[in-house]
Records
---
Amino acid sequence: MERVRVCVAGGGPAGVMLGLLLVRAGVDVVVLEKHHDFLRDFRGDTVHPSTLRLLDELGLGERFAALPRGLLTHARLRVEDESIVVADFGRLRGPHSHIAMVPQDAFLELLAEAEPGMSLRMGCEVVGLLREGERVTGVRYRDDSGEVRELAADLTVGCDGRWSAVRRAAGLPMREFAVPMDVWQVRVPKGPRPNADAAVSIRLAGGQAAATVDRGDYYQTAYLIPKGRDAELRSGDIAGFRARLGALLDWDAEQLAAIGSWDDVHHLDVRMGRLRRWHADGVLCIGDAAHPMSPTGGVGVNLAIQDAVATATLLAGRLRNGRVPPARLAAVQRRRALPTAAIQQSQRGDQALLLAPCLDGTLRGIPAPLRLVGRSPLLQAFAGFLGGIGFRPEHAPDFARRPSTVDGKPH
């Protein structure tokens, strides 16, 4: 049986970042990703200032800056016909006073290529865990040929998202929080009157809510629907959805014709929750595997990356020498529990204050707390700090730091 020091399940932001950091620490690691490439429709593409600073510390800042990207310096909310700024990232200290909008496949490819020593196996899906008694000793996975293989590991880390196979197989209990919405994701081409207001636009009006991200020649659009009503709403005519979306976002029929059928409307089943315990003997979950996030605020990617940095910082030394005791795995949860809980509480507040009333038709203008933020540059800057940097941002450990390079040369 093949053996490795660490098996990481999931090649998303948390998994690839953890693999990169552990390789730099001298730890033998294999990352298993069930898809054959990183290209997905409608993945989270926001890279926050805390992550941009981390990329600088890893020596990847210049390479990241060369990727096609948009910059978001202000988060703006439009309710009916009134628009306010709810967060100002432009007043953050340091070189990254913005959120970078970068397609996640390009971001993941950059991380994956940063360390040739990392074994990233595409088309390999974890289907179960290996055990010796109560201890997890590795994984069973289906490779790209369909054959089920076994991989022994001193530590298995679940980075495989909100529907984590590792979490389910480990039997780790989840506390779930109610959410008022699911999301329909669509692509809409730019029309003759493109929105020049921002890289991201959020509009709530007439019992509808949507957020758009400027992708150059099209808008990546998230349209909110009441929780659990996907099948019911799809029973209607697609023309009705096009009309509602056009009225909400001031788009014309020619643009919306790109939504040809319900096949072009992708359903995101929104879940939010948090594991009561992120680990068992020989296994640890981080990112959405440990705490599925609402898409509200677009913070899931960055929180997952922060989890990966904390995991590598706390565990790399022990992993170089063998097994990590459960008490050390618990240290990861202790470090990341507060920022996770704080962000989820903020998301729940936004949902209760804004999204649920919008979807049930009881929202009457901008809520007073947000109106106060809209009138105060100081509160906008504070909101920008919380959203862009957040609670307990992680820095690259010393063993992972590198000077910035371009085309492999020191910069």
Note: The longest strand covers residues 148-158.
---
Amino acid sequence: MRNRKWMMAGFALFMTVPLALAGCGGSGGGKQAEGATSPGATKTSSEPIKLTLWGAVPSENGPQEVVDNWNKQNPDVQVEYVRFVNDDAGNLKLDTALISNQPVDMYVNYDFSLYEKRIKAGNALDLGKFSDYNVDDKMGEGAALWKVDDKYYGLPTQKGLSFVWLNKDMLDAKGLPVPTDWGLEEFRDYAAKLKSNKVWGLAQSDYYFTVPINGSLQKQSLQLTKDDGTSAFDNPLTVKTLQVYSDMMFTDKSLMPHTEQITSKPALDQMFVKGEAAMLFSTNQIFRTTNNIAEFPRSFKVAAAPAPKVNKDQTDYINAGGLGDVISINPSSKHQEAAWKFIQWYADEGMLPMAAGGRVPSSKDFPVDEAVALMFKGVEDTYDLDSIKRVMFGDLPLGLSRLDRKTGSEQQAIYDNVFSRKLTAENGAKELARVHNKNLQASSK
């Protein structure tokens, strides 16, 4: 599956100083839009307020049930879910709707660069006008990474991270424990031991080539730069990552060659559940497939391990992931107060139907036990729950890459060249840095 839309999801780090939402813009920091109606206030019309929420998750995977639950509880404020696809065309559709005054009251951001772009275009409301919700307290230290100019323009609602799914039966057959901490050398060794004539040791989309590299750079800078402001990509850890993946493809033959994957476009999640790949580097999105036993029957248990570091002994590694699904309010909405009430409800309790698809709520007030129960309902025996919970609900250091979208897109061609053996690992690292520096210089002018 050629899944480039995940490339910029960037998953990541959280070391910024918490600051309460109430301090971001001050209470009452903006005039309520004309015609806005505060929930609970006396309405002058018997017609309910109508809100639209735009998001990228298919409606049948939770969002429709979410809005149905809200609409039953709130007959005076009715929400409609509108789906857009989280790719370039889908995000353009959303941005066009925002600037052309189409009905968009709330929308979900999945990528920081697009989120920031929408803020600068004036299409995201400063949530500092509301003083009844402390984002940092509710969501934890990772929330602050979504601040722009020290203000929140959206509420991050879910935890997400990249990790490795494992066929535990295959591990058991080889006497391999479920890893709790590993580097690329151990990762490569597992893939080599698990491969067979009919089974790839590892399957992953091209986005995940960036995870060990970015995770090694993010502690120093969200923009993946050195202290002098230049690109940090040209370093030994980047070279090692590119070399290990090349060796897995062409020496060990434990990972499908990149050019073959581009040509055949395999459904990687289905390869995993069919037992055609022993490990899958992915995110919680795969729950949609692993939980679907009826359509994708499997007899093995699924386990989970954290994403591999470049070197196992790294102490400054940041796991791709963090808080996401950031819901913003369109400043043009005539019902900002009602939209805010819905977003709070969604974050603290309403997104429960999304848990079945693997979305982990970030609010500390969310009923986590209920979310976990729903996540594995009816398929509990098909998972190694201890390892799943350790990874998904543990205290791994997470972060948010702010690598600009243009650089990410241009760097993808370099990864393609490295993994088609047109560039060496050393030259690939230099090219990643060159492209990054070019865009850094352009953005500073």
Note: The CA atoms of residues 7 and 207 lie 4 Å apart.
---
Amino acid sequence: MKLYPIKFNPIFKEYLWGGTKLKEVLGKDVKTETASESWELSGVEGNVSVVSNGELKGNTLQELIDTYKEEFLGKDVYNRFGNKFPILIKFIDAKLDLSVQLHPNDALAKERHNSFGKTEMWYVMQADPGSKLIVGFNETLTKETYLEHLKNGKLLEILNQEEVTTGDTYFINTGKVHAIGAGILLAEIQQTSDVTYRIYDYERKDKDGNTRELHTEQAVDAIDYQKKDDFKTSYETTYNSSNNMVNCDYFVTNYLDVVGTFVKQLVNRDSFTIYICVDGQAQVTVGENSEKLVKGDTILIPAAINEVIISAKDAKILEVHI
């Protein structure tokens, strides 16, 4: 069977900080009153995405990889990651502030959790006026000064806060403390990992009156204590062009602003390609197969496909590959 552009059913997650934007802004079929995350494309054990369109409908992402291997992932990607899908795509709606956290690097995550590390990036899709992200420290610290601030309830004093607006993009390397602030809806692209070290949660309690677990001891050796201005990403917005946003060891993300028809040649790309529509709507065509892509939709183009045609009046799309 010839592979085609594949869409997946979203997997919804509910945490105490979630809101209603996944339903109201992105049109997600959320059955609960609120939702925090929509996992668009996931190979995480226990949360594996299921195909929602075409002949492969009902198959899991894992079954596609097991069946099609290099045709699906790309030869180089398959050699590097085997049968594990290396990317996790999410939409996140923060009605309230998320906890301050960080992620371990590959070596530490492998040693402690038998997992990949978690390098990630954020693309802000919508932000209420005054909404902020926490990204890194506002001064260089030692382990001792960090722990002193944490112990005395003064952690927020040493965190760097960034006011954001639609289109802002941030690259979050491992070890960097970070948090999504209230009022922000964003797309997150990350390594396949669910390992998070939570270091501060505003002393909040859940609906049962319990505070959430903190990972103070695990985090100490994983934190990057240096003040760095390496997180906000600038990029071009040229029409009908793949404008590079992030290029790291784990993924490449480009920004597409499609007006009219954009033909993308993939013949030399030894990787699957993911398209995430962050505004507008488009038609994605491969041969005789055509799929509508609207704001909040994600679609995967298997590596065996050599050309994609994207047509739109004006659609803003993130293009992700390895």
Note: Helices lie at 21-24, 61-68, 70-73, 75-81, 106-113, 143-151, 216-220.
---
Amino acid sequence: MIYFDHAATTPPYKEVTETVAEVMARHYGNPSSLHRLGEESDRLLNKAREVCAAALSVNPKEIVFTGGATESNNTAIKGAALQYTNRGKHLITTETEHPSVYECCKQLESWGWEVTYLPVDADGLVAPEQVEAALRQDTVLVSVMHVNNETGTLQPVAEIGAMLKDKAPRVLFHVDGVQGFGKLPLAVKGSGIDLYSLSAHKLRGPKGVGLLYVREGLKLSPLLAGGGQEGGLRSGTENIPYIVAFAKALRLASEGQPGRAAKLGALKDRLLRGLIAQPELLINTPGASAPHIVHFSYPGTKAEALLHMLEEEGFFVSTRSACSSRRSEPSRVLLAMGRSPEAASSGIRISLGEEHHEQDIDALLAALKKSVQRLQSLR
């Protein structure tokens, strides 16, 4: 079996699983405890924070560890909305955000906030001019993802951040960086970003841990009340084994980014050429996109049927965001890009990893061609 679902989760580095086991066995003290075991855990926590900060080129005090990107996104958006109600109750995002942003905004709407959901073009892109036009005197925050998790669309977050700092410096800018970090370069400090979310398991780290970059001087209303850990923003005993392993994975992702992007980009180009050669398929991934995600539709079929046929041939792919994959309705992202309900119900996402090779791509394309022919005969 060959795993082509890296956008959903990634196989952890061997060093990461070894780190989790070692730290869990040897450094089990609570980092808030005053005895030696607690102090050892606290030192590991501080070191991990420094490693993560170095990978992002930010200050360690600006790193808040969370339980994953969903928590990071909710903390950023709800924390800002609740903290700055004196500025207003208007938020801006796009129609194609990850569910942890989109549904968070929907929840805030039910609590009395107003949200502008910016439309995207056929490539899934939103323009900085659209964001600027949507700004109001009572706008508190803009949230735009770096890379779309379904199609790989690359949003112009640096340009949006520069526009906001020039036109509306009081408006906070949040970026969900989950699918971009380690594949594409992005200077958090140089892109006008105030809040930035990451998840460890999308970077070959463990599940259940992530981080939120919070620009120094920025206050957020905490979602969890308790002992005041993580600068008061995320109460609860820190998960030291996973945090230390996350720091290792983040460092490896950062250091290997240029080479990884080049390799994945070449594999992606090979895959796209093979998909284009099959006229039954509709390519949804645009030219300006991440190097590891390719998305296509086979209109007239159920995505699940093609997915399971490919699984029978030895390949794991997905239909959409893992958070939405069990839903039967058409993809919200593809509908927002102007695709028909038929195309939006038949999407397949292939997401690449650094362990893949050209022969894996060729084998997948051959299996896909065989599966499409089988579906045609059934129809």
Note: DSSP finds twelve helices and twelve strands in the chain.
